[in-house]
Structures are given as C-alpha cells and as structure tokens.
Write a structure and sequence with these properties.
Largest sheet of chain A: none
CATH architecture of the largest domain in chain A: Orthogonal Bundle
Helix content of chain A: over 70%
Radius of gyration of chain A: 20 Å
CATH topology of the largest domain in chain A: Tetracycline Repressor, domain 2
Number of helices of chain A: 10
CATH class of the largest domain in chain A: Mainly Alpha
Oligomer: homotetramer
Distance between the termini of chain A: 65 Å
Structural class of chain A: mainly alpha
Number of strands of chain A: 0
Strand content of chain A: under 5%
Shape of chain A: elongated
CATH superfamily of the largest domain in chain A: Tetracycline Repressor, domain 2
Chain lengths: 209, 209, 209, 209
DNA sequence: GATGAATGAGGCTTCATTCAT
DNA sequence: AATGAATGAAGCCTCATTCAT
C-alpha cells in the first residue's frame, strides 16, 4: 500500500486547470474562453477555480510566466559554444532553430498565445510582449558576437535580429497554426527540415547558393 | 461657387463611426471596444450606431472588406512591368516594399487588425485570414514569374513567399506597432529605408554583400 | 379634367395606415407589430406615422373605436321587430347570427383583435373589453324581451346571454381564425350554415329535436 | 423529528420563480412582464433567473408544459365509466364540468394563459394551441362514444365538441377572469352551480325543460 | 479543499418617439 | 405634409466573481 499523501493532490488539480486554460486560451482566445468553460473541461466546480487562482487574469499571467524561462533557455543554450567558421555558425543556427521549432511543437498552445498575442488585460499583454522581447534580445546578442568574430558583416544587429525573428515567427505560424489551404506541404515538414529552409534563407537570401 | 449638397451628410456620420471603430478596434481589440465607447468617441447616440450598422460584428466586417482591395492592389501593381535583370528585380522589390510600408503607415489601424488578428466572431476572423492569404498569393505569383525568367533559383515558391511575407509583416510590426524599447531606431526610419533593409536581406541574407 | 382636391389625400394616407396597422396588429399582435413595420407596409416614412397619430397606443385605440359602432349596430338591428312565436324568434336569431358572422368575415382583423384581446396598454385593453360588454348587453336585452313575452323560460338573462355569446365567439374563433387541423369542415361552411348550427344548439341543446 | 434536507432548496427557488412568472404572465401578459419584474417579485438577483432558466421563452414554455398533463387528465378521467341513460350522461357531464371549473379555479393563472393566449414567441404560442386542441379532442371523443351508444343524436361530433368547449371556455372566462361589471352574480357561483348551468344549456338549450 | 448556487454590473440591441429640414 | 436620421430608455442576457455550506 503506498502512502500517497494528499497534500499535493490540490497541486495536481491546479496543474490540470492551468493546462486546460492554456489550451482554451490558445484555441478560442482569452475573451471567448469563459471560466465556466475551463472548469467544465477540467471537471471541477466553478468555485474551485477561485480557490487556486485569484482571477481569470491571474491564471493567464501565470501561464505566460510559467514557460517563459523554458523558451528563453532554448535560445540561450543554442549559442553556448564558440564558433569560428561560417560553416560552424550555420550548423549552430540550424541546431538552434530546430530546437526552437521542436519546443514550439511541444508547447504549441503557449506559442500561439505568444504569437497571436491574445486580446486581453494590459498586464497579460505586457507579459507577452516582454517575453518576446527577451527572446529577440537573446538572438541579438548572438548576432553581435558573430559580428565581433568577423563571421557576420558589421550591420545593425537590432535590425538583423528583428529580421531573423520575423522569419522564425512567421514560419512557425504558418507551420503550426494556420489550419488551412496552401501550407500543407509546409506543415508536413519536420522541425529539422524547416530549420534548414530558414537558415538557408537567413544566410544567403533568395539568391543564395 | 460650389453647391455643397447636404445629401451625404448622413454618409459622413457613417464614415466617422467607421473610422472611430477602426481606431478603437485596432487600439484596444474587438472585445474591449464597446459599442458605447465607439458612439461616445463619435459623439452620437447609441441608437445612431444601429441606424447605420446592423451590429458590432457587421461594422468589423465592413472595416476589413473596405480596405482589402486597396491593399491587394498595392502588391499586384508592384510587379506589373516585366523585369529581366537581377538589378531590375531588386529595384522593383524595393519599390513594392516601400509602397507596402507606405500604405501600412497610412492605414496603420487597419494593418494592425490584419496582423494582430483580433479575437472576434468567426466571420471577421475569416475575413482577416482571407485577406492575408490573398496578399501572400500575390507575392507568390511574382516569385514564380521571376523564377520562370531565370532570375531567381527554382525553389518552392510557397516557402519563399512565406519567408518573404514573414519578413515584411515582422518588420512592419516592429516598425509601426511596437510602442516600446529597442525599436526606436527602426521606428524613426522612413518607409524607403526600411524597404531597402528588407530587400537587402531578402536577396542576399545575413552574409550578403 | 377632374379637379381632385388634394385636401383629403392626407386622409387617404391616414386611412391606409390605419388599415395596415389593423391587419398587422391582428396578424402579429400589438407588441410584435413595430411602428417601423407599419410604415414600411404602408409605404410612408417613419415620421409620417406621427403626423397622423399621436402614438402607437393612439392608433390602436382608434382602430377599436372605429368599428365598435358598426358591430353593435348589427346586433341591435337584429331584434328590431317584435316577434311572438318561437318560430319567429328562431328565425330572427338565425338572421342575427348570420349578420354577425358576415360582419366578422368582412372585418376579420378587427374581430380577431376583439376576441384574442391583444396584449397591450391598459387603455386599449379597456376599449376592447367595453366593446365586448356592450355587445353582450345588446344580446341580453333581447333575451329579456323574449322572456317577458313568454317565448323563453324565465331564467337569469345575464347567464343566458353569457352562454349565447360564448357560443358565438367560440364558433367564430374556430371558423375564422384557427388556421390548422380539425376545423376544415367548419371553415368551409357559409355564415348562414354556421348560424343555423348555433341556433339549433342555442335553443335545443345537444339533445334537441 | 423530520430531517428536512436542504438539498432541494434550489428546487424551491426554481419553483418560486416559476410561480411568480406564471402569475405575472397571466396578469400582465408575456411582453409586459419583464425578467426584471419576475426576479424582483421573487426576491432574487437577475442572474439567478438565468441559473435556472435558459431564457424568458424557456420559462414560459415550461410553465405551459407543466400543467398540460394535469388538465388533460381531468377531462379524460371524467368519462371513464360507461353510461347508458341520458340521466347518467347528464350527471357525468356535470361532474366533469365541475372538475374542469375546480381545476381552473385552482390553476387560475395557467388557465388565463391558455384562454387569452398570450402574445409571445412562436414556440410558446404553439404549445398553448396544442394544449387547447388536445383538450377539445378529449371532449370530442366522449361525445362520439355517447352518440354510438344512442344517447346523443348522430350529428357532427367536431361541431358539437366545438360548441361545448366554446361554452365552457366562455363561461370560465366570465366566471374567473372578467374583473368588472355584470358578472358579479356569476362570479359568486360555485363551480358546481356553474357546471349545472352549463350542462342544462348544453343538453336542452335555451328552451330546455 | 470543494461545491454550486447566487450575485450584479455591464454589454448588445430594439424600438417608440422626436427633430431638423 | 412628409421625410428619415437621430435619440435614449430600457430589455434580455452573459459572465467574472463571491458566498454559504
């Protein structure tokens, strides 16, 4: 007989409500997701929601903050080793982008919130925006390092990271979220293949080799 | 001496409500924009809104459809003349992107709706999505033509237009909409300069000349 | 060339609005009939309605009062001559009921208002009720006279007229107004035949000769 | 000692709202009865209404359906035993009519809805009409049986039941619902006495024995 | 911890009526 | 006389949040 303590059963419930809320926010948006929907899907009573969370806004905020660190970690980790040749940088980029796409695949709902930026309270909006900025900063830092090493031409790194992240986010959106026409070929690609396409374009543009 | 007829004064009211609504939808989103807010800002009574529009949903739909054609026209027009050298294509691209950014600047609120894709009724959502798809299709067609002419390498034009539009939309977002930190340098650029940056990256990538 | 004065053209409009309103009140009821519906059907502008009538309530009141006198006249006229034999009374009744049904047929919409007693303002309600009471009083007076002449047994004339009018109104409703099942045979009857049925029942009951 | 469970307290609230709504619908009609009136009279908040009922229309429908079965049962039960003489049939009729009037007295508000047929949504209208048709069918069936047994002359049973129900409904209206003049004597009668009057007229008419 | 009934502010919309022309 | 745009009170309903148990 295992002595399962009940002390963290609440925790489990909490986790479950969080998950359900994330999915619904992502699928239907913040306003169209009613607290009553969340509790129904989570199989708890309406009051229970408010035992665990102060408000609908609070749970949204928590959802954002929860995964922020994980996402940033993916990017920062991607550049840890120093590289010296273009070849190495390209390979590192490929690896990084793949990680980014894999993470997005595994955290589809979260990423949709981040990109589609739900229409919600100021506080949540800000949280989303900040996360995205942090992410872009992480990319920017790496571009700067590569420029210092003479691997990349010396151009405005802010603009370059903006271009790069635009690429990543745009492709991610089309790959994971756009349900309909046109992108079926894209959607059947693996994260690795998608990363390759982006890297190719990133470094060499349309005319590229 | 012009005899200004009063006959379209009603039309003016209508137009004014449309404008106010567009701005508010763009600034605060669909759900947070109350009909009562719109009429207050437009200086008319609540009932007046319903004299001109069937519902809140209807005005949103009309807003989208209103400018769709204009936007598409900008892109289609951009490629009318045939080009034969890379130089010409690059220049044409620059011109096109500039037009796109200028249009966006002049229709800032509309473009924000399009990109941030407000959380709203199905019908409006679809209208937005369709507009974006049409836009991308327009770009795709031109890439295909350039490939046929041997100006661009023969790659998947769907992926290439997706990459391109990602670039444009991402930069547009950072240029026009992101109110805060980091993008001040970007935001002070002219549409022309921004177009140059994007074209440079588009054709030659990070490593480009 | 006829010199049609335009002075009563307004009158015509007025009449037309009255007619349209009567039909709509009867068909859809007071509350479900909107002033905007009436004017649409009458082919005039919304403001025109209020040139002719003080309010929606006022037009309803006028409609009721308009035909009240006609209806009462039908009943009072029915008993003008003195009768001395049962035979004569029965024949007179038959004639009277036929008149009543014919009038109802010709004033279908008005009679429906009277019987279904629309859900409306107090004042209109009262007007309807009063009309019905006047009608019943007219019947009652005649029953009293017949009783005095020894033609009818001396019973409570109030109850008898109530019974009689119940009969008339109930059959009228089923004959003219009930659109559906069961009454098709009834509905194809003439006013004369219907009057016969009612008179038969009135004087002799179910067991009657 | 009774252990009154609190489990159906919610049910009590529901019941109370139903009752209040029935009374108000009956007294003022469907449209003039506002949901805000109902909850005020019931002493609950506006939202509470919508916890128990989907809409104003839904509660009206439920009210109708609730008592329909009871009413039909009264009529059907009235004729269960077989009768062979006129005397027996008359007595059975008297009993049945009395039951009908007693039920009506006890369900005054419901019966008013049924007879005055409130101006409301299609669905409720239909529910009311159907109930009335079922009732008349029940009467018709019994008249047919009496005719088969040779107790009543062979005439059109549809017409006869129509006449009969007209009588019952008309008298009920005057007995229970007409607040004013003229019917005071009627209104002070017992259900039994009223039933007698109607039966007398039903079988023998004005001239009756 | 958990329930679900209860709350009430506030949103969208309708519609009788008024007003400027 | 006539128009039709404009008004605003008021109705139905939603839904985040609270409360008694």
């Amino acid at each position: 007989m295992d002595y399962i303590t009940t002390q963290d059963q609440g925790s489990e419930r909490r986790e479950q409500i969080l998950e359900v809320a994330l999915k619904q926010f992502s699928d239907y948006g913040y306003h169209k997701t009613k607290v009553s929907d969340i509790v129904k899907a989570a199989g708890v009573a309406q009051g229970t929601f408010y035992w665990y969370f102060k408000s609908k806004e609070a749970i949204a905020l928590e959802i954002i903050h929860n995964k922020e660190a994980d996402l940033i970690a993916v990017v920062l980790q991607g550049y840890r080793e120093s590289k010296v040749t273009v070849q190495e940088v390209v390979q590192a980029s490929e690896k990084l982008f793949e990680d980014y796409f894999v993470f997005s695949q595994q955290n589809k709902y979260f990423m949709r919130l981040l990109l589609k930026g739900m229409e919600t309270e100021e506080s949540v909006q800000s949280a989303i925006l900040e996360t995205r900025i942090k992410l872009e900063k992480a990319f920017q830092k790496n571009i700067e390092r590569a420029a210092e090493l003479g691997i990349l031409p010396q151009k405005d790194p802010m603009v370059q990271s903006a271009l790069l992240v635009s690429l990543l986010e745009g492709m991610l959106e089309r790959w994971l979220f756009n349900p309909q026409q046109g992108y079926s070929k894209l959607q059947s690609q693996s994260a690795k293949q998608l990363a390759k396409d982006v890297v190719q374009f990133e470094f060499f543009g349309l005319l590229g080799i």
